[in-house]
């Protein structure tokens, strides 16, 4: 018998627990001594449930009441705590059996809350009735996660049944938490092998337990399985969770590169046009993701990545990395001589231009030098240089540009300038008479009273063509 002070008893009013247990066992024995059927059985079990529910409430109150009290804990330790726990186990196990007799829908709610059911005894009953969801709840409530996950795996891999597939295992693992991380990885493997897209929700769901998983360990695990899974996880923590850790940003770049190289190797070995086409598309998509990330992220280490890039590949990525460390000349050389893209070189200059009086810091001057003063035996690229000046001359100091142009080019430009000036003087000396019946030679519509609205567009259309102006005259 355990004696509690009045202030420590709380709502539990029983004084003799041995007597309580004896009464309970006698009542159960009495119920079992007669063969009850039909309505009589139902009424008897209902009465038993009512009694057990009342006993359960009082037991839980004494086990949970004021547990922060040191004197309460001392009394339980000095007394017989096991006695209370055994009594609670007897009550809950008997209550569950009673539910299974008249209303098994109540079994699940009982197992999903704190309970003292005997695991071995209840486990056998639930397996016999094939109540797998309730069995999973029993295991979970008792912290028997391995048993629960083994059950879910067996059910999930079966061809038919109420819990086939990966959903239930994914849901369970998402709430397992980092304290059971090794167990989580162990049972995540079959899910990822079966359904990798859905299985990744184990690691990228917005549940708190998922977000708090150790990211380094998750990365190491996923990298051993698939580049794609590793990329998906890194993109999630970087783009969605806004993780700015440089190591993760570097890692994503390295995984992109490794995947592209792996796909290129597969492409070289394949003889199927269909497979090669699919690989080419995947390489292109991955490379686009790589370039976008290199443009968007400010947290990777460009020098570290440059050291890992092959010298004979990934030229566009190298140019972006060189721009990050201010090596504009080298980046422009790649666009001009490796990628052979005048458009990309000019786009690069527009993006990286900074207004300055120092010609050595003007990216347009740098590009002009690459065209007009090439090194390593490259030929002068006069036409691209002229086009650059015609499109972006306002960014270049005229004297700097003229100093780089060949003498023959300067004379040609001067002659062109004089010819244009003469043409301008000629057309300015002529008059154009436009009346209501005059037709536009370009769009063949009557000009009429709309001249004031359309004159700018009209002049824009006819300006480049001498024939058009003559036709209008």
UniProtKB/TrEMBL annotation:
Keywords: Membrane. Transmembrane segments: none annotated. This is 3559_t:CDS:1. It is found in: Endomembrane system. Residues 91-192 form the Vacuolar sorting protein 39/Transforming growth factor beta receptor-associated domain. GO terms for cellular component: endomembrane system; fungal-type vacuole membrane. CHCR repeats lie at residues 206-376. It is a peripheral membrane protein. It comes from Funneliformis mosseae (Endomycorrhizal fungus).
């Amino acid at each position: 018998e355990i004696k509690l002070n009045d202030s420590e008893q709380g709502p539990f009013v029983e004084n003799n627990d041995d007597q309580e247990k004896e009464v309970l066992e006698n009542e159960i024995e009495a119920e079992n001594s007669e063969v009850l059927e039909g309505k009589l059985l139902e009424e008897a079990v209902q009465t038993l449930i009512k009694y057990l529910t009342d006993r359960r409430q009082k037991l839980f109150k004494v086990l949970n009441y004021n547990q922060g009290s040191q004197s309460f804990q001392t009394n339980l330790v000095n007394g017989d705590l096991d006695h209370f726990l055994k009594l609670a186990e007897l009550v809950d196990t008997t209550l569950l059996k009673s539910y299974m007799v008249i209303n098994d829908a109540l079994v699940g709610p009982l197992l999903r809350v704190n309970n003292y059911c005997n695991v071995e005894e209840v486990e056998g009953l639930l397996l016999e009735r094939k109540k797998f969801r309730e069995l999973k709840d029993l295991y979970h409530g008792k912290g028997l996660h391995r048993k629960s996950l083994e059950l879910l795996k067996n059910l999930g891999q079966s061809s038919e049944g109420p819990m086939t597939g990966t959903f239930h295992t994914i849901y369970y693992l998402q709430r397992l938490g980092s304290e059971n991380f090794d167990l989580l990885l162990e049972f995540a493997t079959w899910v990822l092998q079966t359904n990798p897209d859905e299985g990744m929700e184990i690691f990228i769901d917005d549940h708190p337990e998922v977000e708090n998983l150790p990211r380094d360990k998750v990365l190491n695990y996923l990298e051993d399985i698939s580049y794609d899974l590793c990329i998906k996880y890194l993109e999630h923590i970087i783009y969605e969770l806004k993780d700015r850790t440089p190591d993760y940003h570097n890692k994503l770049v390295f995984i992109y590169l490794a995947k592209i190289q792996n796909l290129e190797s597969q492409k070289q070995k394949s003889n199927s046009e269909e497979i090669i086409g699919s690989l080419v598309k995947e390489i292109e998509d991955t490379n686009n993701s790589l370039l976008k990330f290199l443009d968007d992220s400010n947290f990777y280490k460009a020098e570290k990545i440059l050291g890992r890039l092959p010298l004979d590949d990934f030229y566009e990525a190298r140019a972006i990395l060189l721009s990050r460390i201010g090596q504009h000349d080298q980046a422009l050389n790649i666009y001009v001589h490796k990628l052979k893209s005048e458009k990309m070189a000019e786009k690069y200059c527009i993006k990286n231009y900074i207004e300055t009086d120092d010609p050595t810091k003007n990216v347009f001057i740098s590009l002009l030098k690459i065209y007009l003063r090439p090194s390593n035996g490259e030929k002068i690229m006069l036409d691209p240089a002229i086009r650059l000046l015609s499109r972006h001359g306002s960014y270049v100091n005229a004297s700097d540009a003229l100093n780089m142009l060949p003498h023959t080019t300067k004379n040609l430009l001067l002659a062109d300038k004089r010819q244009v000036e003469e043409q301008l003087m000629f057309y300015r000396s002529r008059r154009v008479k436009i009346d209501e019946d005059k037709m536009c030679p370009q769009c063949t519509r009557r000009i009429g009273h709309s001249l004031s609205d359309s004159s700018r567009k009209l002049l824009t259309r006819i300006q480049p063509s001498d024939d058009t102006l003559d036709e209008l005259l």
